[in-house]
């Protein structure tokens, strides 16, 4: 009987050993499954962010122009284009302009009031944000300062909109007038978007 007990004990010990090894392997498999699930979630998050970035609306300034009205008003227009794949909803925009000393451009406080509503801009559609400055004749008188490069004619503004995913986006823009090209070029700072 002792022999049978000894054999049963050995068999029980071997069974317990294999049971422990099976439980360890199961625990390792569960850990690997958790890691794989987390990696899959991360991949889904990246895919979702990428899809949103590819599909959402992007408002970009396409053209800046101005003209002086004969009654002394300066009209500035910024053509905003939705270069994204979905509509830009609840779009608002504000445009401002000033003639400022050239050496102060980098430190100038480009302030923007609350922008008025413009509506929805569909994909590839454009809308013009306008600014009317009284005293356009003053601008004509100061044109020599711009020609002499002591002052710079700057147009700046912002566009805010809600993308198709319900997130509020903002585009800020700053342009300076180049007398040589008779066109506006972006300033080095202040042109950004979310």
TrEMBL record:
Name the source's superkingdom.
Bacteria
Q: What is this protein called?
A: Uncharacterized protein
Organism per entry: Pacificispira spongiicola
